[in-house]
Write a structure and sequence with these properties.
616 residues, Rossmann fold, Topoisomerase I, domain 3, 4 domains, 6-stranded mixed β-sheet, 6-stranded antiparallel β-barrel, 18 helices, 16 strands, 20% strand, globular, DNA-binding, Topo_IA_DNA-bd_dom, DNA topoisomerase
DNA sequence: GCAAGGTC
């Protein structure tokens, strides 16, 4: 009896084969240069010893399309909400490999990632297998459940398969159809109209996407807030005391007020007394927590912040390091490690390095900590960590060097003790007002010694103060300040906003930013050594134009619709709603918005024209 | 020529 096993990517097929076969497998090439077919035998608990062929796909192998009659220019874009969609095989060689291998198989076992997309890819694999062997039915599919490649976990997964979760499959099918219909209809409408109005060039493209526009919306929103910012004056009271020839500044616990008279009144009351009283001195141990295990989004945010690397460049470098076997899988939302992971083994591989080897050695000698567990789990991959050592000087790409070093230091930091400090806070009463000052001494750096990207340092110390002590106010002043404008959007902030609002995924956030840059909706702008993202006049015109149309309580440039879709998809997964039901509801919202948009295209064009003229 | 999601 032959079992056909199919994974989502070649690296998983290789690893699972290695584990299940105990290293005794033979390898055949497929027509796709990335994909190998591995043959071995395995003793499945329920079936006994079976012949196994393990292979993989490379992500999705099919996609949606419209029939020829509905290609660009052949119908009005509004029809795309309702015409039939067809399935098209996008990777014929991969598809055929599965059909062929399925011919001699009596069972199909799906080893795709255990997330929603993985479930759908599993269904695509089933269809390819069924084409080669119609004796394989949906009910015969084994779906193995695993979230990392630790040996016992994989063997357990091999003996406890479940069935394919059609709710998840339907949720993904729903997402695909919405994104496809909405994206294509609006893109054709926008492009055709902006071309007619000569706002974009003949060969140009003005795309709309359910992720592209909310992303652009974030950038435009920030830009407008910076431009329309009006500074406001505020007032506050600041106090210095002097003791042992040392000045200490105390901050007002009330902060600041925009009412000058009010602060003046309080300040006048204070001036009645020349002395203040120390009402409280508190000295306590504080800790500064080691970082959480690394996710893709965190990696991208930190690379942008620490190395000024774009999200795309960071992910590309991490991917190359993964393909060379140095890093674990770099696309993950999980901020924890499996409890069974061999942390000491991972640390031991780093002990020979010239920069961090000594630290790794000290962790080995003194015992490492168990990493903290974050609350996110994509149920498919563990947090990003080094799997093999490479001397960074032997890497040729500057980005790879930085990313590898960062991932290693982050991992060692995860296995280290938290930093410890001592914080002293003194409270001062002056008249009716209270003020505080504090000083920090870092007593044990611990993880900070290896995680050099972060600063937590000893500050200026307070002089010895006692509760009840009278102190002379060496300077008590009412000061004036001014609110400052928000900064322009950084890539780090944009990634964080997208992540928080469910726009895109760990694997696609970087791509959406790149795409709207390609479309000339946003540009990166250097200012004072920092890089900011600002909208182009076209990008502003599009958002402004859509915002001026009157939709019924919805916005095409904000993240709410995407979030609504995401919530509804989860309900499909949970079995609370059907795909047909959600599809109709969401389609109806966009269909209506499309109707309004197509009527108001002249408004959009004139808004665009106006903003472009203002900025040229 | 159009989307977003996988992966290489």
């Amino acid at each position: 009896m032959k079992i056909l096993c199919v994974a989502e990517k070649p690296s998983i097929a290789r690893e699972v084969s290695r584990i299940l076969s105990g290293g005794r497998f033979t390898t055949r090439n497929s027509r796709n240069k990335f994909i190998k077919n591995y043959d071995f035998t395995y003793n499945f608990t329920s079936l006994g010893i079976c012949d196994v062929t393990m292979t993989s796909v490379v992500g999705h192998i099919t996609n949606m399309d419209f029939p020829p009659a509905y290609q660009w220019g052949r119908c009005v874009p509004g029809r795309l909400f309702d015409v039939e969609v067809i399935e098209k095989v996008t990777k014929q060689d991969v598809f055929d490999n599965i059909s062929n291998e399925a011919r001699t198989a009596s069972r199909l076992m799906i080893w795709t990632d255990c997330d929603r997309e993985g479930e759908f890819i599993g269904f695509e694999i089933y269809k390819a297998a069924f084409k080669g062997n119609s004796a394989i039915q949906v009910g015969d599919i084994w779906r193995s459940q695993f979230s990392h490649l630790e040996r016992s976990h994989i063997i357990d997964a091999a003996s406890h398969p479940r069935s394919l979760d059609m709710n998840s499959v339907n949720a993904v099918a729903c997402r695909m159809e919405i994104d496809f219909r909405v994206g294509t209809s609006f893109t054709r409408l926008l492009t055709d109209c902006l071309k007619q109005n000569r706002i974009i060039e003949k060969g140009g493209l003005a795309s709309y996407g359910t992720c592209q526009f909310p992303t652009l919306g974030f950038v435009v929103d920030r830009y407008k807030r910076v431009k329309s910012f009006i500074p406001e004056k505020f007032w506050y009271i600041a106090v210095d005391i002097r003791k042992q020839n040392q000045k200490s500044s105390f901050a007002w616990t009330k902060g600041r007020f925009f009412d000058r008279m009010f602060v003046t009144q309080l300040y006048q009351d204070c001036l009645q007394t020349e002395e203040g009283t120390i009402t409280n001195v508190e000295s306590k141990r504080t800790t500064n927590w080691r970082p959480l295990p690394l996710t893709t989004v965190e990696l991208q945010k930190d690379c942008a912040r620490f190395f000024r690397m774009s999200a795309k460049a960071a992910l590309d470098a991490a991917e190359r390091l993964y393909n060379k076997g140095f890093l674990s899988y770099p696309r993950t939302e999980t901020d924890s490690f499996p409890a069974t992971m061999d942390f000491a083994g991972v640390i031991a591989k780093q002990t020979g390095d010239g920069r961090w080897g000594a630290y790794a050695n000290s962790l080995m000698a003194n015992g490492h900590e168990m990493p903290r567990n974050g609350s996110h789990d994509d149920k498919a991959h563990p947090a990003i960590h080094p799997v093999n050592y490479v001397a960074i000087d032997s890497l040729t790409s500057a980005d790879e060097k930085k990313v590898y070093e960062y991932v290693v230091r982050r991992f060692l930091a995860c296995c280290s003790k938290d930093a410890v400090g001592h914080q002293t806070t003194a409270t001062l009463q002056w008249g009716n007002e209270t003020f505080t000052a504090s000083g920090l001494i870092v007593t044990e750096k611990n993880y900070l010694e290896i995680y050099t990207y972060k600063k937590w340092e000893t500050t200026k110390q307070l002089p010895p103060l006692e509760e009840g002590e009278k102190v002379r106010i060496s300077s008590g002043q009412m000061k004036e300040g001014e609110t400052s404008p928000p900064n322009h959007m950084t890539e780090t902030e944009l990634i964080a906003l997208m992540d928080a609002n469910g726009i895109g995924t760990d694997a696609t956030i970087a791509e959406h930013i790149e795409k709207i840059m390609q479309r000339d909706y946003i540009v990166k702008h250097k200012q004072g050594g920092k890089e900011y993202i600002v909208p182009t006049p076209l990008g502003m015109g599009l958002i402004e134009g859509f915002d001026q149309m009157e939709f019924d309580n919805i916005s095409l440039s904000k993240p709410f619709l995407r979030k609504l879709l995401e919530n509804s998809l989860q309900k499909i997964v949970d079995g609370e709603r059907t795909k047909a039901d959600v599809l109709e509801e969401v389609k109806q919202i966009y269909r209506q918005a499309y109707g309004v948009s197509s009527q108001k295209m002249t408004l959009l064009a004139s808004v665009c024209r106006q903003i472009i003229a203002q900025n040229s």
